[in-house]
Specification:
Length: about 210
């Protein structure tokens, strides 16, 4: 099967529970055999985004559409630059600043390049989900304290933490973030499905 076909949604799937189970299975197959997080997160964001566009029963490409799907990751995970910029500056310190989440692979319009997660300065849904280590579902973003508006058309949002478990330790990696054009675009079924997607992505990669 061509890779692009993995995002197709059969017409027999009508409920969100069925949809997320289908996406999880398709994504698991797509990521099989690849462990690099950049590659896998790129395919994951594309597949989830494209599958949601194809799922016209609840999302599609109209007023209920998901307009952004992607990842923000702790900057310490990004590779150290091997070459200096053209101006000769050394940007290693910025790349290794663990008080930021940096924009990772995504689908949608251009987004905020980084999100501050340092104590006293952190704000927004992504920062809160990361620091609180829990999924945050926001029915109406304009009412959320400290919301960061990357796209003024966004009306609702859901953010799932990416947590790597090593023995009895939990290591925060970043977040999976989705925006929707509709108020109350996401529900508990989406929360449950996306948390499984987030867990799959974490387990499928070498960090």
């Amino acid at each position: 099967m061509p890779h692009a076909d993995s995002s197709l949604v059969p017409s027999s799937i009508t409920s969100k529970t069925e949809f997320w189970a289908h996406v999880h299975g398709q994504l698991a197959s797509l990521l099989s055999g690849q462990r690099h997080w950049v590659t896998n997160l790129a395919n994951a964001s594309s597949m989830v985004y494209s599958s949601l566009l194809a799922f016209t029963a609840h999302f599609g490409s109209g007023s209920q559409a998901v307009n952004w799907c992607g990842f923000y990751l702790n900057s310490s995970l990004f590779p150290v630059p091997r070459f200096l910029g053209q101006d000769g500056s050394d940007n290693n310190s910025a790349a290794a600043d663990a008080s930021r989440l940096l924009l990772g692979p995504f689908c949608g319009k251009p987004a905020c390049q980084f999100i501050n997660i340092s104590p006293g300065k952190a704000r927004g849904v992504c920062a809160d989900a990361y620091l609180q280590r829990r999924t945050i579902l926001v029915p109406e973003v304009d009412l959320y304290p400290g919301h960061i508006a990357c796209d003024g058309e966004t009306k609702s949002e859901i953010v799932c933490p990416l947590i790597f478990k090593k023995g009895d330790k939990e290591i925060m990696l970043g977040v999976l973030d989705l925006d929707c054009l509709a108020v109350s675009g996401f529900c508990e079924e989406d929360k449950e499905g996306l948390e499984k997607i987030a867990a799959l992505v974490v387990s499928a990669c070498d960090w």
